[in-house]
Amino acid sequence: MARKTIQPVTAILIGAGTRGRDAYGSYALANPNRLKFIAVADSDEKKRVIFQRQHQIPDEMVFTSWETILDPKVGKIARVAFICTPDRVHFEPAMKALELNYDLMLEKPIAPTLEECRSIAQLAKEKGRLVQICHVLRYTEFWQKVKEIVDSGKLGEIIHYDHSENVAYWHFGHSFVRGAYKNKETSSAIVIAKTCHDLDLIYWLLDEKAEEVSSIGELTYYKPEHAPKEAPERCTDGCPIANDCPWHAPRLYLDLEPVLRTGLSSHSLFLRVLTKLMLKSKAIRKIVGLFNKDIRRINNWDIFPINAITTDYSREGIMKALKETPYGLCIYKAGNDVPDHQISTFSFPSGATATLTMHGLSEHEGREFRMFGSKGVLRGIFRNSEESIKFTDFRSGREQIVHQTGLSTETHRGGDRRLMDAFTSALLENRSEEEELSLTNIFSAMESHFMGFAAEESRITKQNIKIDEFR
Question: Does the residue 38 lie in any domain?
């Protein structure tokens, strides 16, 4: 008997920007037997056209807005709607898509207000639809290993979990000083916009709901009073301190220096030496790119952070964007207001505590943690340049490296790909949410949002907050 051919999950994309195109669009192109985009909606014509061409979408399935693609007259034209719009444009398209009985892949955060999050979750429950929230870190090999160790009992009773999200200075400057997330009122509170991944990890790893939170944080450094007197409004206006400023925009977007520097942290001596040579000479970069696909990719970079500022990836196009968009503004004069550091402390019914630190002045992009148990301590580093997990046993004093890998070029170190594998498998096999326990569906993801909204309330009011007040 011939085996039945399984058709890929059909999908529409709402928002063809960085995440929509590079994370989910790329997955579909690499896995055509699992996912196929049949329609796209975006208000930016260039982004629409790029995605349309990549996925060979006919003109009649290309829409200029979420309103038009989710018009009841158009109806449900695929199984899944991927909603990759800005934070403030999550709620309405999510609700409209659910009303049309779409399953959803919804970018984090769910929505910028608690009321909107609750409304989406309630409608998903009423409609019986799967709403996957993109908490990708659960799906990485690293955090899966941490979870395995915690659940094994090797650490004993968990007493305290110290988790730090170290946002690289250039990334924070790009996204939270110059970029789309720089103002709370036009995006989300930074504890929601940036650290809901981390809040989800705390909830998942400790496997209990937090009771209370105390949070402090403010904008301290990225402010006008720290601007040198001679600094112009834009980096492109002939800044006299360009050579000394770590945030000089042309050096990030034209030369990709911070991206290249990741190679300096490689465990490979050859790669470290090669990186130093390429940082000194663009000619060497071009030559190496002829023989190495990763360097060739850097020489023709068209993903984050470049694709956040323009769709014209030529040097002229990038420079034009730096002269006209907020991404070329002096780092101290960008009109931002979200905190550049915040610390939140959570208490749990078991007596355990957890601390989440977020700051935007790190040399490395990534996360670090320490987990203190009654039998030992677990320490970990999670960066694009490296991963390591070390366990120290109290009784023997022995230290054991339980996980270690080097440089990775995959986004979220493979978390995006594994999340999509899990999501498409659940749909292809028609599994229910209860059966697909690894999925961060909206009901599981709500817990990280309760924690985040409560933490922001604590930061603003300077009071301890009972999280049940937000559930």
Answer: yes
